[in-house]
Design brief:
The structure holds two protein chains of two kinds. Chain A has 19 helices and six strands. By secondary structure, chain A is mainly α. The longest helix of chain B is centred in the C-terminal third of the chain and has 25 residues, at about 30-55. Classes of the chains: A mainly alpha, B mainly alpha.
Chain lengths: ~600, ~55
């Protein structure tokens, strides 16, 4: 470990908080319908979009109407993206947008990819530079990066409106919230971020790929493309789908220490700001600070564990007698699968930032982390996106946990549970409980199905199998479990190895997909994305109709350190009870045995 | 400096077919299956919505 490494982590937390606080105030103004400094620029485009969509932004929607609009919009996006990806080599596509003449990926891979980008997951069975045309990347995947991020944010906003509502059924208007999110929030930050990235060396062009002759006399193909614009929204929208196969480890996506720091800030900026927005909109800023404190405590805990574990080095390094300490010019530790330009701290921090959220971008190989370091992303995913979480997803997920914590706390002190002056009754707890359990159920069910079936085990990599155990090794289980856990959490990072796409050549000719893995993954992502959204909106609808009663002397406070500890305890307990048996079969048994799988 | 040559496309290097007339048919039978599955998934979500309303 180095002082620079620790300083990076501390600086990151400080800068994030400093940026998220004012952004939260800005977002509260945007979603409260108040004018903001960007209103003169975006007022006209906003009105134009309402006319284009044929919607009346002043028409209030209850939770069901809000949810139906969201589902219908998502289905339309799903179909459009499928069409775009399956026609990337159609005659009407200009040559400049498909200069390499790439064919479309097979139908099953496209099914998985469409479901992935629609749900903010960005799980990628394919490599971007060998599969997708610029047409597909720009008009298909990048557009969905914006829209899926927008959908997550508007659900969180609707839930906050339900909490602050003083009776009535309205949660706002889905179309207005979505348009305002894209215009007033995602667009300005993305444009600035893309320009910053370009200034640092992230490429943005429509050139054909380069072939260069290396100093050793070989030829090497260097992929090009409009990377910067996708990189900006990929991080800001916690999408995570790499333009290139190696994602943010690629120097054209993430060239310097500065871009690494900047991209990590982009990932957590909106999830963190949403918590401050929540505090402002509810008129109880301390409530927002309490939730922010719980998130930051869990986040820093995860970062510390990952950094210390990776800086310590791997057991294999120690067994080989290698020096893993800090020496001049090297950060030491376990550098397998990590980029020299990011080092241990830059890799460990990036790993935690992208696995506590639904981002899933990677700048290092997670499967090359040490046992403890690799357990951190598992644990983060097991927390179901409540440690900042995805844009919007994080806030509405932790608010469901807050509801559960309030209920448990209320039982402990023997009072009717109350939250911000609203009595919590059986219906809200049922809805919150089901909303919390949907994601683990989807992940575990899909893992069990894939592990128990021959079709599922076909996707396991050869390196995870052994002569004695075949595909029944702990590493094979870890690959499978991580794949479906990551997809269920709409994260998209991979433990590597689990395959759904066999591609002998770039350009997709002769390629084929593994139907089982692609379809099951698609179901996993869609179900685990939208079902919790429906439960969150239903909770919003239930809370919106409740009257506010003044807090009494016996009311349990939900904005003090005691409640923060209770909230963290509930999150850890639910995650541990749900996933511990599965974690035992994979990463933990690997860590407890001397076998190399 | 290493000399750099720019090729028009990757066709030769990656053995990928870049010929426009060698294109696969755009819509195959399985596309229809995939689209139906997609629509059914979202229809199921609408049913879930109605189910949640009864809780």
């Amino acid at each position: 470990m180095t002082a620079t490494g620790w300083l990076t982590i501390v600086l990151f937390a400080v800068v994030l908080t400093a940026l998220a606080f004012p952004l939260g105030s800005y977002m509260a103004a945007v979603y409260s319908g108040r004018g903001v400094f960007l209103s003169p620029i975006f007022a006209w485009p906003e009105r134009f979009l309402y006319k284009l969509l044929c919607v009346d932004p002043k028409r209030e929607q209850d939770w069901k109407a809000y949810a139906k609009s969201l589902i219908v919009f998502s289905l339309a996006g799903w179909l459009l993206l499928y069409l775009i990806l399956r026609t990337q080599d159609a005659p009407w596509v200009p040559h400049v947008l498909n200069p390499l003449g790439y064919h479309s990926a097979p139908w099953n891979v496209t099914f998985n990819t469409v479901s992935s980008f629609m749900t903010n997951t960005n799980w990628q069975f394919y490599g971007g530079e060998t599969t997708m045309s610029y047409f597909s990347q720009m008009l298909g995947l990048t557009v969905q990066n914006w829209l899926s991020a927008g959908i997550g944010i508007v659900v969180a906003v609707a839930l906050v409106r339900g909490i602050v509502s003083r009776g009535g059924k309205s949660l706002g208007n889905f179309w207005q919230d979505l348009v305002r999110t894209i215009l007033y929030l995602l667009t300005p930050i993305s444009v600035i971020a893309a320009l910053v990235l370009v200034s640092q060396g992230v490429i943005a062009n429509l050139s054909t790929y380069l072939t260069v002759h290396t100093v050793t006399g070989l030829t090497q193909t260097i992929a090009m493309g409009p990377v910067a614009s996708q990189e900006a929204i990929k991080m800001l929208g916690t999408n995570g789908g790499g333009f290139f196969n190696t994602n943010s480890a690629h120097p054209f996506e993430n060239p310097t220490q500065f871009t690494n720091f900047f991209e990590m800030l982009l990932v957590l900026l909106i999830p963190a700001a949403l918590v401050f927005m929540y505090g402002r909109m509810t008129g109880n800023r301390r409530q927002g600070y309490a939730i922010y404190g719980a998130m930051m405590a869990m986040f820093l805990g995860a970062v510390c564990v990952a950094y210390i574990a990776e800086a310590h080095g791997s057991p294999a390094q120690h067994a080989a007698g290698l020096h893993t300490g800090v020496i001049h010019g090297s950060t030491g530790g376990n550098m397998e699968g990590k980029e020299q330009r990011f080092g241990i701290a830059g890799s460990a921090l990036f790993d935690v930032v992208t696995t506590v959220t639904s981002c899933g971008a990677v700048n290092s190989a997670i499967e090359s982390f040490t046992g403890i370091g690799g357990a951190v992303p598992f644990a983060n995913l097991s927390a179901s996106e409540v440690i900042f979480g995805g844009v919007g997803t994080g806030l509405y997920s932790i608010l469901l946990y807050v509801l559960l914590a309030v209920f448990i706390g209320g039982l402990m002190v023997g009072r009717t549970p109350e939250w911000l002056g609203k009595k919590i009754e059986a219906r809200e707890i049922k809805l919150a409980g089901l909303g919390i359990l949907i994601t683990p159920v989807a992940a575990l069910f899909c893992t069990a199905l894939a592990s128990a079936s021959k079709a599922g085990r076909a996707s396991i990599s050869e390196v995870a199998t052994s002569a004695q155990l075949g595909t029944h090794t702990p590493q094979a289980f870890s690959e499978t479990f991580y794949a479906y856990l990551s997809q269920a959490n709409n994260n998209g990072s991979a433990f590597a190895g689990y395959t759904g796409f066999v591609q002998p050549n770039a350009g997709n000719l002769g390629s084929h997909g593994v139907t089982f893995a692609n379809l099951l993954g698609g179901f996993d992502m869609i179900f685990a994305r939208y079902a919790p959204i429906l439960f969150a909106l239903a909770v919003a609808g239930a809370l919106a109709g409740k009257r506010v009663t003044p807090a009494g002397l016996g009311t349990m406070r939900t904005d003090n350190p005691t409640f923060v500890i209770l909230l963290i305890g509930v999150i850890v307990l639910v995650g541990a009870l749900t996933f511990f048996p599965a974690l035992l079969l994979g990463p933990i048994v690997q860590g407890l045995t001397g076998h190399l799988y | 400096m290493t000399p750099v040559t720019v090729t028009k496309s990757l066709c030769g290097v990656a053995k990928s077919s870049c010929e426009r007339d060698d294109r696969c048919s755009i819509v195959v039978d399985m596309d229809a299956v995939a689209i139906v599955i997609g629509i059914v998934m979202f229809a199921l979500l609408l049913l879930v919505l109605e189910g949640i309303d009864r809780i």
